[in-house]
Amino acid sequence: MPIHAPGPRPLPVLGTLLHLRRRGLLLTHLRDWRRHGDIVAYRFGPVPGLALAHPEALRHVYIKHRTNYIKGLGVESLRWLTGQGLFTADGTLWQSQRRMMAPHFTVAATRNYAPAMLAAIAEVVARIQARPTGAIFDMQFEMMRFTMDVICRTMFSMSVADGASRLSDAITETLHWVGVRGLQLLRLSPRVPTPANRRFVRALAQLDEFLHGLIRARTDSGELGQRGDLLDLLLQATDPESGRGMSHQQLRDELVTVFLAGHETTAVALTWTWALLAQHRFARDQLDAELAQVLAGRDPNVADLLALGHTRRVLDESLRLYPPVWVNPRFAVAADEIEGVPLAANTVIMPMIYAVHRHPDFWPDPERFDPERFTAAATHARHPCAYLPFGAGPRVCLGMNFAVQEMVLLIATLAQRFHFSLAPGQQLDIDPHAGTLRARDPLHLRVEHRSGG
């Protein structure tokens, strides 16, 4: 069945791969979207693909006809990194893993991680406080270090200072490999010793050594169940339907998935949030007013989260403009039709969340930063799939509550103590080849200590 959707002219054998590789999938699709519309046809060698940029098309894939759209080949490269973790698993394996892990990521369960989050926040405050007013520093590095510290404390009862910081480069290397490999016609196994593959294998070995070492140490220590961290909880988790627990390999896959989501994507979201606040004084003034009213100079805690409405709206608007997971692919099991466009079985489906978040039919003046888009009334009136930073449907991100709690607490704490402005010459461009929506360059900010902060 042919794809009757507009798109760039495919080449023999290569399809549209060369077209996409020049500027990366994201930037190329934005140009193609403006030219061809909300459904754009691509071809990855012999494999057809559809990029979707309309909320109703995403509702079709994620909710209405979700059983026809699996992860499948859409995440084949990522599976080399995460294995069969929740983000990449399908079918009964995904269902079983979700049942085992979901109880540990509810709103109530997430509150138990607050002390570890607040301890990591205190470390960030101390590092920035040690810099004099006017000092310039890399906020992207600080956010990567902070989110890794949170994950290490909540997952493993260890701080980032205990040796996990060396994993940041390994994570960056593996995600870069995944992003580049996704647009290659000939996808060699990582076992083929090309320079890129050797770097990936080396970085993956670092991650595996770290995680398997922690699993072995915990199971051999006789302390299982005594720490109450995520590693303890997942080692003891069982599927309520089958009664089975996780193998060590499955546990490793889930730890990598949580580690990447909790470290990489959260740090990316926070980095863009600080960049936007540094450029928009009106939003920062509103944030200052809310913090003064709710906190009156004290540090926030989880009891304050519901009262920090503008802080949450700032975060939501940042996630709209810069969703860390900007595409969330699926694979069509059977032939179907989306918004009048027929598609064949085995078509790669690319819900382009970045474009949906800028669709002018749902977001007036879409490039403008405006946290008031996320008032309760505005949110209720909007299409339910116009805003999907955490996905939608049964596969909505399991760590959403965890991430929002961590980010709101950090934003409120730092914003009450410091003002940040962009360093002279700072560029804010997207890295087109990163696996997440990273900035291309470090985020250099100038810090100003607030009185009493």
Q: Which CATH class applies here? A: Mainly Alpha
Radius of gyration based on Cα positions: 22 Å
Give the total of beta strands: 10
* Beta-strand percentage range: 5-15%
Strand order of the largest sheet: 1-2-8-5-3
How much is the average pLDDT? 91
From the spread of the alpha carbons, the general shape counts as globular
Q: What's the helical proportion of residues?
A: 40-55%
Describe this structure in words.
- The chain has a single domain (17-449), classed as Cytochrome p450.
- 49% of the residues lie in helices and 9% in strands.
- It has helices at residues 17-21, 24-36, 55-64, 76-82, 91-101, 107-111, 114-129, 139-156, 167-181, 195-221, 230-236, 248-279, 281-294, 309-321, 353-356, 376-381, 400-417; strands at residues 39-44, 47-52, 69-70, 136-138, 330-332, 336-338, 341-343, 348-351, 418-422, 444-449.
- Helix 9 (167-181) packs across helix 10.
- It is globular and about 65 Å long.
- It starts with 16 loop residues before the first helix and ends with a strand.
